[in-house]
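Researcher: I'm comparing several assemblies side by side, and this is the next one on my list. It has 452 residues spread over two chains. Same procedure as the others: predict the full complex and return the structure.
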Amino acid sequence: MGERNGKAVVCLSGGMDSCVCAALAEASHSSVYFLHGDYGQRTESAERERFHALADHFDAAGRLVCDLRHLATIGGSSLTDPAIQVSDAELDSENIPSSYVPFRNAHFLAVAVSWAEVLGARSIYLGAVEQDSSGYPDCRREFYDTFEKVVALGTRPETRIRIVTPLIELKKSEIVRLGVDLGAPFQLTWSCYRSGDLACGTCDSCALRLRAFHEAGIEDPIPYRR
Amino acid sequence: MGERNGKAVVCLSGGMDSCVCAALAEASHSSVYFLHGDYGQRTESAERERFHALADHFDAAGRLVCDLRHLATIGGSSLTDPAIQVSDAELDSENIPSSYVPFRNAHFLAVAVSWAEVLGARSIYLGAVEQDSSGYPDCRREFYDTFEKVVALGTRPETRIRIVTPLIELKKSEIVRLGVDLGAPFQLTWSCYRSGDLACGTCDSCALRLRAFHEAGIEDPIPYRR
């Protein structure tokens, strides 16, 4: 892997993309700091359990679970508002799905930047996927490129922080293959939007994951309801 | 005031700048929604009390206090870390003061944007002051201009949100005069960084406030320890 960089902060939902993202960060940094956000999402207890399992697996030098439950108070998403149903996937739709949590990834980035500035970490990893994704606006490359400019403007003059989104242009099936190559522990991850118990197999997130493993010709190690 | 716009979200610390900012927002919008962040700052209980008093005064259509105490866990600021002393003001220094909370204003903006998107509010008001301020990097006009681009990229295509920082180029004394013209209730505000009881008069924030009222030739209606 050549010379290892210093510290990296890794935003980690506990899903497959953030797991592969963590494996990439861990391979090129001397220490990794794992960040997870509780935004009142339906499956938070499952996600948080996986977050800690992944932090153990990757031997994180620090871990931070932040309370972003004001996102659930604000609402507007099927992930946080029980009155909005989690719809079955429409993978080829141009519409922004009901699971979009308004501006959510900006909250993760804000916390990651504050933490990175105090730690002296120069990289923030986030497993956003643009090409082959649900179509969330805060998963686009331009969003991260512009956010990086905001970071340069809004922190100390000597602070240098890159926002690294190594998966953003990959197809989900390529992320599966990359994860297998890196030895990423997919068995520890959680992707389902509906349930924290047994993955439903039909929500946006399950459908994207299942299609990715299928296209990669690899068996998904987690069990599904159907 | 001419035609009034729709809804505005106002970020409100409870200090003099955010109070004047709220008065401006209230004068030009049919309804105002007040947002306050608890980031574990020393004087949060005083700030929160003033936030609610100001929300009552301006008849806010909604109010949201969000938990950003992970900023205190992260630390790096005299406002959140009891081990770092709140220094006396050095108003002409070029250094970033110890009271800088890393990237704090990005956290307020992230919450404000999520809330504004769900409410359908098109304006976010924030009382940042660049010219005559403590020199925080996240109080610069460029930071807000670039953040506005991030908002356009990271929200639904139909969402239009402006970040309005009407005080950013004003001197603090001009803000006092503007507030007096608008009938802003300065007696309800809190600025001190050190104490939640009786303002110290010597920290950065008190020193800036006192100088502003002095230069404006107006008596500050709140009591001071010295």
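Model: For your comparison table: The domain at 5-216 of chain B is CATH 3.40.50.620 (Rossmann fold).
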